Amino acid sequence: MSSHLRKRILITGGAGFLGSHLADRMIAAGHDVLVVDNFYTGTKDNIRHLLDNPHFELMRHDVTFPLYVEVDEIFNLACPASPVHYQFDPVQTTKTSVHGAINMLGLAKRVKAKILQSSTSEVYGDPDVHPQTEDYWGHVNCIGIRSCYDEGKRCAETLFFDYWRQHQVRIKVIRIFNTYGPRMHPNDGRVVSNFIVQALKNQPITLFGDGQQTRSFCYCDDLIEGMIRMMNTCDDIVGPINIGNPGEFTIRELAEKVIALTGSSSQLVFRPLPQDDPRQRRPDITLAKEKLGWEPTIQLEQGLKNTINYFDALLSGKLWQ
Ligand code: NAD
Ligand code: UDP
Ligand code: UDP
């Protein structure tokens, strides 16, 4: 690629699940990629195959501290995404979203970079409006155990829009709905990885509550495509735009699909529903279709098969040797 088309791309949280897939796509497209990660939930294993690439660079750094680098585009993904992990050190979670956003926006302002925020469907909380459209303001508890994540992400959105209005920083905000796929951490704690690992080990599948709550699951490759399309839109498209798969399933249906696809002998067991667990969630993706020409292409069953193959290889020690 000629040097004027080669962009310098910063991915915060790039050693994580989604960030590492994005890094792969950006390297394949011929760009220079700098990954910044403190390895809280991410791991070098996710990007090990890129470490020898001359166009790839890895920096251990916590985004709650200032960062001085020269880049053209910033994808701000740093933040633990699984309730188990973001609740382990909730103060650090809020700091990561809020101080991390301030630092990355300050960086974008100084170097005049475009910056994309990976926000979340959690800004809608336990939603009264279904499916969720971007103009819905949400139903979020500000003092609960999920608040460090939800309110941190809401405040980050506020900062993005204020840096845009006040400092003309070129921002892009996407709201990501539950996304799954290879490279989720086996102990990540989110439902898809939990169920697949439990099924492959023939251990009980842990349904929280009655399993009738719903989620809409997007495969990682679809999500990354939407994220890149958003970054490439013209400057007047700032979002927020929902990126997710509108196919909605109960958690029990998900468990049954995983059992069927793995041929597991696992039984379902019921555990208490965590506090503030949203009852339902499904994206309205009209805006993504209209502004990005994007919609998901990978059905749950196919995405689950790919993810099961990955965890099967991981658990049997066939990966990263
Ligand atoms: P992940 O936990 O695999 O990745 C997050 C990465 O951020 C990890 O590599 C972690 O080590 C790093 N990180 C955490 N705190 C940091 C800090 N202070 N400084 C530097 N690095 C730090 O999770 P993921 O699913 O890949 O999520 C990526 C982003 O997408 C997150 O911002 C998350 O909120 C957002 N998101 C994900 C989903 C989903 O379903 N996967 C849904 C909504 C939003
Ligand atoms: N910042 C950074 N890298 C830069 C520029 C700024 O990390 O290249 C951080 C810096 O720590 C600052 C924050 O971003 O606190 C916000 O920057 P801004 O310019 O908006 O505010 P100020 O520097 O006036 O506090
Ligand atoms: N869940 C479950 N068993 C598990 C993990 C999660 O039943 O082992 C439920 C959880 O209570 C929630 C849904 O699955 O209703 C999705 O949980 P996850 O942590 O993946 O994401 P989020 O709640 O942030 O959407």
TrEMBL record:
One of its GO terms (biological process) is D-xylose metabolic process. GO terms for cellular component: cytoplasm. Residues 10-306 form the NAD(P)-binding domain. It is a single-pass type II membrane protein. The keyword Cytoplasm applies. Its main location: cytoplasm. Its cofactor is NAD(+). InterPro entries: NAD(P)-bd_dom, NAD(P)-bd_dom_sf, UXS-like. Belongs to the NAD(P)-dependent epimerase/dehydratase family. UDP-glucuronic acid decarboxylase subfamily. This is UDP-glucuronate decarboxylase. It comes from Oligosphaera ethanolica.
